[in-house]
Amino acid sequence: MKFYNREKELNYLKTYCQLEPNSILFVYGPKSSGKSTVMLKVIEELNKGDDIIFFYYDLRRYATPTNEEFLEIFFEKSDKKYLSNKFEFNLKVFKFGIEENFDFNNIKLNNVFDKIYEGIEAVVKEGKKPVLIIDELQKLKNIYFNHGEKEGKSLLNELFNLFVHLTKVRHLCHVICLTSDTLFIEEIYSNSTLENTSKYYLIDWLRKGCVRDILKKEGFTNEEINYAINYISLPYEIVDLIENKKLGLSVEETIKQWINIEKDKIKYLMDTTELDEGEIYNILSKFKDKININYYTEVKKEEMKYMQFLIKNEILFYDVINGIIKPTSVKKWNAIKELINIYKNK
User: Fold this and answer.
1) How far is CA 241 from CA 153, 247, 262, in A?
2) What is the pTM (predicted TM-score) of this model?
3) Sign of the alpha-carbon torsion through 28, 29, 31, 33
4) Which of 9, 139, 218, 260 has the fewest CB atoms within 10 Å around its CB?
5) CA-to-CA distance for 296 and 243, rounded, in angstroms?
6) pLDDT tens digit string along 283-307?
7) Where are the CATH 3.40.50.300 domain residues in the chain?
8) Neighbouring residues of 212: CB distance < 8 A, sequence distance ≥ 6
9) What sign results for the dihedral spanned by CA atoms 305, 306, 311, 314?
């Protein structure tokens, strides 16, 4: 996908990677807002030098892993402490090395962390800066060691302890975690273990002025632009609009398709849940006249299970850091408003 005008976000992350490690950074935002694209651009640009080593793991490319699969994803058997990640063909990124005779079936969590630590130290000894990036980290939250038993050690909780040690305590390595799961971010934000050890950076919707400039450069007319900017908030939507125009669809036809698809998704979700339909519509009605609401002043305790249902299913986005709840995109907002009108006219 073409990289669209994220200079502010790009500069923040590039600068962050070049500072001394002192915290875990959680990069969060609505689904498809461009978090991974920006992070990959950071890797590409900083790799032009030779002083930073990126360990990059995109967990979206894998089914939710077991503890054995986690080990296979994060480690490569080698006599080196770290080596090129052969599964990322177009990226100069690395993964941790582990001995050829290492038995993945009989391994303790401390042994795992020792190998990560050895890889980080190997980079530091070479006079380079290690940066560990995990995309969609929350996919590790149901992994337990000690044969996967619930009374075993939670991989994610123990990883956070290691990350704090690498960043806040020893200042050896940056750790950057990307996620669109805002309920997961809420768990992290309220985790006392991570208090004063973490930073949070929001990559949000594209700004209207940015969308206007991009569409103008792509050859759209003023009339088309004035119509489209009321519906576009995410980078992939621009790509879809450009492709559909080449295929002969008007801007209005494309956006009508978007809204219909989003309405169908929401309606299907509501038809297949046991939660009360009227209560869900009451939550959605909060967005009838405004695009976002304040969590602290506009959400009642008894409404939370319906709100969480809509957040979990990516109808709504919860920005826990700023206390704001809104639809996951502007087109989703327009679909919500149309559904509210249909429901009221029943």
Assistant:
1) 47, 10, 16
2) 0.93
3) negative
4) 260
5) 41
6) 999 999 999 999 999 999 999 999 9
7) 7-202
8) 225, 229
9) positive
